[in-house]
Structures are given as structure tokens and as C-alpha cells.
Fold this protein.
Amino acid sequence: METAPKRLRDYAKIIRSKNAGPYRLTFDILFRDDVSFATVCESQAVTKKSVAHAYGVPIDQVSSLFVVPMGRAIKVTLLRPKGQGDFGDSDMYGCQQHAPLLDLPVQTRNI
């Protein structure tokens, strides 16, 4: 019987978003333990391509992606669809933009 792939939310302790200035959003993905962090990193679930796909934006909108082993974290920054506070901006603080990352699939190796 096949099981559904786990999602990023199954491994991360915290997935959050916030402004990184008025024209960028930054996402912090923090892991509860070394095993969870290593599993996600080895799966390559979080890449510029996967983040761009999750947000429906071109890959060049993802301006940076850093893996921080000492902090068991992955940090991603992308351009905001609208400047902070511009007409039509639905999240002034950028704190509600992390939801698409929650369901990123994490494919693990079967041993």
C-alpha cells in the first residue's frame, strides 16, 4: 500500500513569513531536530524552482535561498507581488504568506 508523501509541515517546527523591506518577503523554515532538517535537505524539496512553483511566480522572483545548518533552517526570499502598502496589498506585514510552503511534498528515499 502506497502512502502519501509527507509535506514540509510534517518536518518543520516553524514555517513563517515576514517583510524583508517593502519589496521582498522572507520565509523562515525551522526544524525541530537534525534528522528532520537533513531529510528535507536531502530530498531537495525546498529549491528556488519548487518555491516559485508553489507561489505561481517565475523562478527569478525567488531572489535567494540559504540553507543554514547551524540553525537547522532554510531561508528563502522572494519579490513581493505588490510593494508593501500599495493599493491591493493584502498583507501589510507579510506575515500571512507562508501557507503555500506548508504543503511542499518531501520525497524521501526508500531504503
